[in-house]
Amino acid sequence: MSSFKNTLTQVLKQHTEISKKLSGGVDDSKEFVRLSKEYAELEPVAVAIQALKTAESELEGATEMLKEAGADADMKEMAEHEVMTLKKLIPNLEHQVQVLLLPKDKDDQRNAILEVRAGTGGDEAALFAADLLRMYQRFAETQGWKVEILDMNSTGIGGLKEVSATISGKGVFSKLKFESGVHRVQRVPDTESSGRIHTSAATVAVLPEVEEVDIQIEDKDLRIDVFRSSGPGGQSVNTTDSAVRITHIPTGLVVSQQDEKSQHKNKAKGMKVLRARLYDLERQKKEAARAKDRQSQIGSGDRSERIRTYNFPQGRVTDHRINLTLYKLDQVLAGEALIELIEALTSADQADKLASLGS
Question: What's the sign of the alpha-carbon dihedral 309, 310, 311, 317?
């Protein structure tokens, strides 16, 4: 506990020092931006630590008052109530501070690239992929985020073979990063006359969007092919070779882009997706190394792991990583109740990280 107290003292000291520097004026604009950012990150932690210190001080005062109450029944009752309230409050405040002190994921505030692909289950899997895309689009609306489709390959009957989109706004990646993995659906397809429940799946990948400065790609490592865009059923959409296929030779990653009529725009969008995938590969390698140490079940981003089941007959959604079931299937798919799953996953991840720090 003494090391925890020392950490709190250091954070408050650092917060005060930065505050003095900023109020005294900083000539260097880069240094001003750096200090301002650091101050903004420390501010919520400092406020929480101050609240904890205030509560601890008040507990000391209430405990002292209880000793001095003697035969005064009213004072004794008031002091006992104060002590009991503060003893309940302080562990919550300590937990809040510990969560705020956890190492931050540097990608949390980034925009994200969402990729949804139909998996096993044929047309039903493609229809489910379309359902998932709509769910994320609706959820984005509730968060005030913007969704832009990058590339879409549809089946022509309302389903999607695959789709990629950028989602931009505040804290997009922090909220969506636990959505990566295999999503399974259990329902009776409209085409099923006997009423049998079918199981199919779609894969979701959420990648932090990165800039060119974040990840360098050498021209010699790329093979770029151009071809004619095609729509559902293979019919030609464009009369020019505007579609682009980019192959990253060292990793074998392939990105195709054909939504734009301009070859230049398709290439730019394709490079954006390629950068995100290469960056995500590095994230997964680092996460795998960390997970080896702490056996984390959340945040691994494992695309092969079945993470969630959407069961239509029972109207439930189950997240298998945290054994949470919500009987709110319609609200989840409407983007309204998805936040409940996201917040539960975030809390579980925080608890796991706190446990690993203590071990």
Answer: positive
